[in-house]
Each structure stands twice: as structure tokens, then as C-alpha cells.
Here is the input.
Amino acid sequence: MSQATFTLDDLKRILLEGSGAPEGGGLDGDSLDTEFSDIGYDSLALLETASRIEREYGIELDESVMGEATTPRVFIDAVIGHLAVPAA
Amino acid sequence: MTASVVVTGLGVVAPNGLGAKDYWSATRVGKSGIGPLTRFDASPYPAKLAGEIDGFVAEEHLPSRLMPQTDQVTRLSLVAADWALADAGVNPAELPAFDMGVITASSAGGFEFSQNELKSLWSKGGEYVSAYQSFAWFYAVNTGQISIRNGMKGPSGVVVTDQAGGLDAVAQARRQIRKGTSLVVAGAVDALLCSWGWVGLHTSGRLSTEQDPARAYLPFDDRAAGHVPGEGGALLILESADSARARGAKVYGEIAGYAATFDGREPGLRKAVELALADAGMVPSDVDVVFADGAAEPELDRIEAQALVEVFGERGVPVTAPKTMTGRLYAGAAALDLATAFLAMEAGLIPATAHTEPADRYGLDLVVSQPRTADVRTALVIARGHGGFNSAMLVRS
Here is the structure.
């Protein structure tokens, strides 16, 4: 059921679907280490994104992902970490 | 405490016109925006007509980031606020954030957004409900989004008193300006033309089930049998007269008087009008036109006509209800009537009440068929909210 990978493109697509594009660019390779808030996505956008990822990939993200993954790189790594864990 | 509060900008979104200019062009010639509902299949419902806003493409005005988190009502509100600010010649980015506030009224919030999320909840499960449902439905959402978009952090809020709210919000804005806030975006836009909202509106028992747009909403007419709902409203830029003068702004006029009452054993409407006159330091003969609430329910029409006759005398003042061209917009209606009053003062023209043939027994000088040329310097706007709210506001050029 779970897909094995989660990339920047996946994150970008899900952010766009759920929360639209912020004014002034949005997410690209150069912004991997930029804070989401500086890209133009607030905590609610991340909540919506996390919810969509959980639905699509059949995983459950820890609450801590929301609080600690404040940049795309950390967020993507956290999702990949959950994908790697076999379903209990 | 008595500093003069003026209006320097108008933002109108109405079924018969987008933008103050288009709306006034339509209203002055009696062009109605009422027609068969097209937003969803209305055939199973008793009421089938509405004042829908056509040709509004939110994506042409607002960034993509706002689309997934906004209902139609918030999109209309954001654009109306943008237009009002542009009309006032105000660039919010150049002003101190805490000197600007936003006070709107709402009678329904974001109904269609909620309907879609409820559909997801019941058909697919709670995990499919958008995180944005947490605020997108909420009465205060228009105030919040206008505040965020324009960086306005001063006194803000929302009032919920059905149609009276359109005036109550402007009155609240006047209080905040008198306390020292330089500028407030105030008024109301309502929009709930989705099937869930439609069912809710029917519970009032006040919707017209007539299917001919020319016979469906006839306040003060012997054939009156309810109203047609519409969507839209207006947002106004309020400033202290001093600050408007200091920046050389165009001024539409002043918010001169206001009062609100609540119905008890006796209807409170007459008292609201008298208190508004007292607040403005005016007498009835100062008033050049009344924008009526125009419920188009025989008993409510009787109460309103009686209040006007008692205050102004039989046929003592021209009365009009241009909302016959838009349908009742709930909180948005009174704000739109205020905007219309300023446009009427500017043009020296009282727009007509569409389609109505007034019954003699009401004793009103209702402006019908044709607009009436008049030197309009002072207008009274009346709004009644479902459940007993009465508000009256006087504006002066």
C-alpha cells in the first residue's frame, strides 16, 4: 500500500493541491532549507499537507513532525522515515 | 467623542453590478440582477429565484494561496475591500498597522465551504475534512482575511444581527474611529447560495415562491409574499474627517447618526429612527430620502410604513428599496444601501423600487418605475434583522 519514496516534487504537489501557491514563487530546490513561514506557508498549511500525505500514503505522521519539521528538507526526511517503518 | 466620521471609499459586489460604477449604472436605470437560480439544481425547493453574482472570477483578483481556504463570501469580501481601498486612494502598506481596523457583519459565514466539508466528512471520513474548515466557515472570517491581506491590526471584529448587521458594523467602526483609529474597513458581504444554505433560508418562512422575477419581491405591494435572497454587499472605508482632509481624500459624506433597538411588546423600529435623528442632531424634515428595509411581508411592511408615517408624516419623504433589484443580501443589504445612499447623493438621483406597485394604505411616497431627480443631502437607511433587530443610520453629504 505504502509508496516507497517521497520527494520534493511530491511535497510541492500536495502543498499546491491543499493550500495553493504563495505569492512570490513558492517551493523549489533552492528553498529546501528555507523556513515554511518564509516561503509563505503557515502552520495550518502544514497541517493540511500532513493530513493529505497521511491519506495518500496510508501512514500516520507523529505530532512532532508538525512542530519540528519547519523546513521542506526536514519535513521530507520525516515523511521518508515514516514510509520506511513497516506497518505495525 | 463627536469627531466627524466620513466615508472615502466604496467597494460593491452586487447581483446587478460588480464595482460601485457598474452597480450604480444598473441601479439608476432599474436593471435587476434577480433570475432563476443556477448555482445548483433548485427544482426540488419551493423558492427558485435568487440574486446571483455572475461573472465574478476570484482567481482574476486573488492569489492562488487563498483559494483552498476561502468560501465565495470571503472571496467577494476580499475583492470588495480591495476596491474600496483603491477607491479611497489608500495603500495600506504605507500606513501604521495598528491605525487600521476591519469590522464586518455576517449573517451566515462560509456556508458553501462547510457544505463541501460536511459532504467529505459523511461520504469519506473525518480525515478528508480540510484543515481550513477550522475558520473558513466562521462569521468573523471576512474580517480576519481582510485584516491579514492588508496588514490591518487595529480594532477589529464582527457583528451578527442579520440584515441590521450591515449598519451595526459601520456604527461600531464609527465608535473605533472616534476613539482614535485612523481608518476602518466596514460593512458586510453575505453569500450563501448553495443547497445547504438554501434549505436554511427556507426555515424563515419568508422566501418568495413566485417564479416570475418581476413579481417575486414586491415590498409595500398588496401582492407582497416574501423576498428573493441574493448574494453580495458592500465594504466602505471610514476615516475621521480630519485624517481624510489631511490626506486630501475625496469624501462621499458623513456617517451622521445611528441607533439600534430591539423589538419587545411593541416594534422598536420607530424608536430606532427617532434615536438616530437625535444622534445626528437632525429633525425629520432634514431627511431627503429613506432607503427602506422592505421585507415584503405584509405585517413587516405595515410596521415599517407606520414607523415612517409617524416620523415623517403621510407621504412626507421619498422612500425607495433598490434591493428589489438585488434580492435581500442579509447583512450585505444594509451595507449596500449605505453605499447606494452615497452614490445617490453624488448623482442627485433617487433610484427606483423595481416592480412594486405600492398599496395606498401604507401612506408612503415610494419611488417607483423611474428614478427621481432630487437634491439628496441626507439619507436615512433602515435595516431590520430577523428576530427583532432594528437599526437606522443617517448619512449626510
Remarks:
- The interface with chain B takes residues 16-23, 40, 44-45, 47-48, 51, 54-55 of chain A (CB under 8 Å).
- Chain A has a mean pLDDT of 86.
- Chain A has five helices and no strands.
- Chain A has one domain: 8-84.
